[in-house]
Amino acid sequence: MIIKNKPDFGKIQKIDVLNLKSLEKRAQKVIGKGEFGYIEEGSDDEYTKQHNTTAFTEFHMVPRVLQDIEQPDQSTNFMGAKLESPLLAAPIAGNTLAHESGEIGLAKGTKEAGIMMAQSTFASKTIAETAAVSDGSPYMFQLYMPKDWDYCKYLLDEARQGGAQAIILTADSTLGGYREADIINQYHLKGKIANLDGYNTGKKGVGAGGLFAESMQKLNLDLINKLAEYSHLPIIIKGIQHPADADAAIKAGAAAIYVSNHGGRQLDGAPASIEVLPAIASVVNHRVPIIFDSGVQRGTHVLKALALGADLVGVGRPFSYGLALGGWKGVKAVADHLKMEINIAMQLTGCQTIADVKKIQINSNTHIFN
Ligand SMILES: Cc1cc2nc3c(=O)[nH]c(=O)nc-3n(C[C@H](O)[C@H](O)[C@H](O)COP(=O)(O)O)c2cc1C
């Protein structure tokens, strides 16, 4: 599909960021109540959502000194993509809920920041619209496996044409977790599902339930090869929390493992994502790269995830809040702030490069798998 119109970046403004956590309250003032509830919520009692962030405190980095770290360099390479920082804007459905520019703003902000972006199947802008802005900068497409194989082929074709470097198959969300804010606010995911409209099924304006109804519930390992064969793109499995699933996915052809509990929006009572990372990294044993997300709010969180085996670290809600507050400039401000915190943390741990970060000694008493 060719995009004729100039991208509409909507209202943009530079924002100051003290820290990522403080963005939530600020964004609440500019996002509609139902929309904010949908973005912010976790499932059930939100134990896993909260624990995703608090569990980072259980992991301690042991700093090294006298290491000559005047100019830390956080640039890295992920699956062939050159990045200014090992950061990913995790795939988020319906970004126009946060800001009129939606994924177009997200693509511009991440491009300007030199970090990776992933676009959701349930994005508010089409793959082609987003790719036109992304225009060769690091980009991946996240797939909710559709029931309809022809629709799936359409999405894969668009993603390939749009320059996606990989397909992220999300495996932890064949149905949504029980999220009470949506019930209290009587909120149903609104807005258009651009990729569905693009395919022209005539099914417009489906709510969150309808979205999951569009997706295949019976996911299995054979899909990895099927998707790779059709798309000729590396397939990454998102939502891995058990080392055995990571091993099985790699043996079935997965090109990378994405450790995530969906930001605590799915199974409440699941461990924090950072708690399962060490055992998964040990089983993966450098056979494929690892992406990590859920609960990341600090530069030190990014360092801990890298030191425990991640190669790329995803951030979800904070980018939505940055987008809401400042459009693409808000997205860039969030990335820039995180980069600044990463720089400080690198210097204070005695690291010059991301390779050094991966060697940081981490102490913890948290053992989810023995
Ligand atoms: C509002 C919202 C929508 C999301 N939509 C998707 C999606 O469409 N596909 C997907 O794989 N993950 C989705 N996620 C999960 C994110 O990719 C990511 O795993 C999560 O936000 C990371 O946690 P964090 O928000 O604590 O950083 C969504 C998360 C949020 C908050």
What does this entry look like structurally?
It is built from 16 helices and twelve strands. It has helices at 23-28, 33-40, 47-54, 102-113, 127-134, 149-161, 180-184, 194-199, 208-214, 222-231, 243-251, 273-284, 299-307, 317-326, 328-349, 354-357; strands spanning 60-62, 76-78, 81-83, 87-89, 116-119, 139-143, 167-170, 235-240, 256-259, 290-292, 312-315, 361-363. The chain has a single domain (23-363), classed as Aldolase class I (TIM Barrel, Alpha-Beta Barrel). The protein has an eight-stranded parallel beta barrel with strand order 4-5-6-7-8-9-10-11, surrounded by eight helices. Mean pLDDT is 93; it is low at 204-209. The chain is α/β, with parallel strands linked by helices and 370 residues long. Helix 12 links the parallel strand 9 and strand 10. Helix 4 packs parallel to helix 5, helix 13 packs across helix 15 and helix 14 packs across helix 15. The structure holds flavin mononucleotide (FMN). The site of flavin mononucleotide has 23 residues, from helix 2.
